[in-house]
Write a structure and sequence with these properties.
Length: 207
């Protein structure tokens, strides 16, 4: 009897797993569409928006979906709302690869390449506090945004840095000497100042 029932149970279990995966995929697609179309500032708001579409979910499920989708909170107007990483800034246009414009001489005005424009847009969306420790700059933003900032810097024409390291909300930018750090920081400030409604960058020494 066990032998005859086992295949039936296995098929039923597999079907259940497939159904759960499809439901998750549909739910996460709905989340992407919701945050792209309307400002969502909390997990509760997102759960309510999903319920309007027929998805009954717990806050724990919403929290997991947010983490898996990589949603981050950015300042939009007077609120902080969820945004998908791909919606933070446009990707490079046809014929333009990330890092186009790399090798620009220090002090050259930025914003001349698609990659620099993407970085400018990200800086406009993600308020950053800049702190300094020796030859390291710490760019501190909202939780979950560090990898986005680091990747945008790596793809841009900023070349004075030795490299970047991303944590959760903090990106470390490493330099070989004082002159390179100062030139980089000056360009960084100029780029952020050029972003519409971008906050003023403050630099604090780490004690």
């Amino acid at each position: 009897m066990r032998t005859s029932q086992s295949p039936t149970l296995t098929r039923a279990g597999a079907a259940g797993m497939l159904d759960a995966k499809e439901a998750k995929r549909a739910r996460q697609e709905a989340i992407r569409e919701i945050v792209a179309r309307r400002p969502i500032a909390s997990q509760t708001e997102l759960a309510e928006a999903l319920a309007e579409r027929g998805f009954e979910v717990t806050q724990a499920t919403v929290s997991r979906d947010i983490a898996e989708l990589g949603l981050v909170k950015v300042a939009r107007g007077d609120r902080h709302v969820y945004v998908a990483p791909e919606d933070l800034a446009p990707t490079a246009g046809p014929g333009i690869t990330p890092g186009a414009g790399a090798g620009t001489a220090p002090g050259t005005p930025s914003g001349t390449s698609a990659a620099d424009e993407r970085l400018r847009r990200i800086l406009a969306d993600i308020p950053l506090v800049v702190r300094r420790s020796g030859l390291i700059l710490l760019l501190i933003g909202a939780p979950g945004t560090a990898s986005i900032v680091a990747q945008a810097i790596d793809d841009s024409s900023f070349q004075e840095q030795e490299g970047t390291l991303a944590g959760d909300n903090t990106t470390l930018v490493l330099f070989a000497d004082e002159d390179r750090l100062e030139r980089w920081l000056r360009r960084f400030r100029e780029l952020q100042a050029g972003a519409a409604s971008s906050p003023t960058v403050t630099t604090e020494a780490v004690r």
